[in-house]
Design goal:
It is built from 6 helices and 7 strands. By secondary structure, it is of the alpha+beta class. It folds into 2 domains: about 110 residues, no CATH class; about 70 residues, Carboxypeptidase-like, regulatory domain (Immunoglobulin-like, Sandwich), CATH 2.60.40.1120.
Length: about 200
């Protein structure tokens, strides 16, 4: 998608503000009615993931205003402690929580390009629409496709995906291709295991 120079300039102006909002404990305290504070131990790569997602959203939705992006940043950071606690309780790593939040923000804005995103709504959307998937095979080393999209890793592997019924395909040289379905639970890990048959 072609993005206008004017919109890119607008995003460049607002990006530092978004990062500041995401990093600012004062903003979190003003937005979250609890004693939870910002996790100061998040890595630079995790903050870069948030900024990269903001860039993708800006390019996908060129009519989205800089103010709306800033408001999103505040809402997402306010929702972060609740989401971190909920997903980590189910065995997700901190970096996986950040990836889920990035996916959820992008998906939410694709479905709802305008309108206010509040922290409660975003937390609910994220918890209800994403989960983790363990995919294993015997023997290991099968190429994995989830909903016809190739995963970077071969079996046995873990990944993040949308909750609901997912189509899984496993391909390994010398073995029959396997395609089946698995129900991925929202906010939790689900498993898919297959024994491959030699041709």
């Amino acid at each position: 998608m072609r993005v206008s120079g004017q919109h890119l300039q607008s995003f460049v102006r607002v990006a530092p503000t978004i990062i500041f909002l995401l990093l600012s404990p004062a903003v979190v305290r003003s937005q979250v009615a609890s004693s939870q504070t910002l996790d100061q131990n998040r890595s630079n790569s995790e903050w870069k993931l948030q900024a990269h997602t903001a860039d993708e959203i800006a390019q996908t939705n060129p009519s989205m205003s800089a103010d709306l992006l800033k408001q999103d940043g505040v809402a997402i950071q306010a929702a972060y402690p609740k989401l971190k606690m909920a997903f980590e309780k189910q065995g997700f790593a901190s970096s996986q929580v950040d990836q889920i939040i990035a996916y959820a923000w992008k998906d939410f804005r694709n479905d709802h390009p305008s309108g206010k995103l509040d922290s409660v709504r975003f937390a609910k959307y994220t918890e209800e629409n994403f989960g983790g998937l363990h995919i294993s095979s015997q023997p290991t080393g099968a190429i994995v496709y989830v909903d016809d999209k190739k995963w970077d890793e071969t079996t046995n592997c873990n990944g993040l995906t949308h909750a609901g019924k997912r189509k899984i395909t496993l391909i390994k040289e010398g073995y029959d291709e396997v395609t089946d379905y698995v129900q991925v639970n929202a906010g939790a890990w689900s498993s898919f295991t297959k024994t491959l048959k030699k041709k």
